[in-house]
Every structure is written in C-alpha cells, then in structure tokens.
C-alpha cells in the first residue's frame, strides 16, 4: 500500500500544480498536466481510486501528513492505533476528523521551525509570511538552482526552516514538473508539505537576469508551504503578482541597496494587495 500512497502524493502535487497554472499561468501546459494526472490515476487500485474520487469532490487536498501524531491539515490528534497503522503503511488510513488520507512524512523532509507569533503580537500584510532577515538584495545567482539554494539557506540560517538541502531538492523537483517563472521578471519557486509552522517566503533580487526556463528573472520568491494553506497560497501568489506588476514596483525592489531597504520596499509595494 506504500506504493499507492506514493502515487496519491504525486497525484495531489500534480493537481495542485494544475490549480496554480490555471489561476496564474497562460494555460499552455494544462493538457500536459491533465495527461500526467490521468496516467497516475490509472495506476491506482480500485479501493484507493474510489476513496480518492470521493475526497477529491470535496477538496483537492486529499492527503495529509501525520506530523507529531496529528493530521497536518486539520490539526486533530490521530488515535494511537490509527497512528501505528499509518506508520506501518499496510492500509489506507483516513483522519477521523477531516477524512483525508494520512501518510507518514519523511524524516529528512524540510520542516518549518519558526516560532509562531503571540496572539497579542499579530502581524499584517507581508509581515505575516516573511521578515527582513529573509531578504537578499544583490543576490549573486547564475541559475535557478543558485537562487533557490541561497534563499533556502537564508531560511535555515535564520531558523525559519530545518534542512535547507531538502527544501532545495524538493523545489528543484517541483521546477521539473512545471517552471515557476511567471514572466515580468518574476519566479515563484515553492515547496508544499513543509509542515510544523506557517507559510514562509524569502525574497532575492538578482542584478543580472537569471535564465529561468527561457524567461529572464530578477525577482525570486521562495515559499515553504504547509499543505493546509495550499489554496491560500494561490491567492497570495496572485496578490503578489498583481502588486509587482504595477508601475515602478519592480524597480523599487531592484533599487534597494541593503536588506532593510528591500524589506521596506516589499512592505510598501504589497501593502494594498497582500492582507
């Protein structure tokens, strides 16, 4: 049954990638993504296929990692007997609260380790997802891998995530499915399933354009995304794209001389589009 779980995880990632492309892309890759999705669905056994279909009608997030004994999507504690079944991986086990199929996350996956803010210190806008120490002005990156690596290590160095190398590997695997270069000098590499905390993003500005799957990119926004907020991430990315497409927004970011100036510029240009 572990092989079926792996197929279901790949299937969920492809479906969510298709959702992203449908909302923010030009539609040119929808047929390719649909073909890959249908190919994976054909590999599911009848029991797994039936369960997947029922869950998919309710939400495109059909699976959830079991993290610290809890469902990573709804947060409910998994009963001990069920948790053991998830670890053994011999049967499909669903969360008794939200009904999603549970799987055991890999020990070497990237994890979000940032402390959650106190309720009396609630933040707004882009500050909910990033911080000044996650800004890299004048990033020296020649390739997408260079940019992603620098941003991931900045996240790890400042104790927002654990295991930057795993985050880089997962982000590059995601690029292999479909490029995250969006045009207008922007790229949004990201990794879903980074559990343990909130959505986190880091921003890098390259003085020289990076060739990102044939598109020139100067602004790179790397995101570590818990599966539970995948739908919200689509809205966030859309808001960022709208904010950065406005006159002089990119120029404002690219002109920042240091980390503090870049953070101030990012807060300024996104204040109306990111809530």
Question: How would you describe the overall organization of this protein?
Answer:
This protein is an alpha/beta fold and 275 residues long. Helix content is 42%, strand content 19%. The chain is built from nine helices and twelve strands. Strands 6, 8, 9, 10, 11 and 12 form a six-stranded mixed sheet that branches. A four-stranded mixed sheet has the order 2-1-4-3. Strand 1 and strand 2 (70-71) form a beta hairpin. The longest helix has 23 residues, at 2-24. The mean pLDDT is 92.
Topology:
Layout: H1 2-24, H2 30-41, H3 46-56, E1 63-67, E2 70-71, H4 80-88, E3 93-94, E4 101-104, E5 111-112, E6 135-136, H5 144-157, E7 161-162, H6 164-177, E8 181-183, E9 185-187, E10 190-192, E11 200-212, E12 215-225, H7 230-244, H8 249-254, H9 259-270
Parallel strand pairs: 1-4, 6-11, 9-12, 10-12
Antiparallel strand pairs: 1-2, 3-4, 5-7, 8-9, 11-12
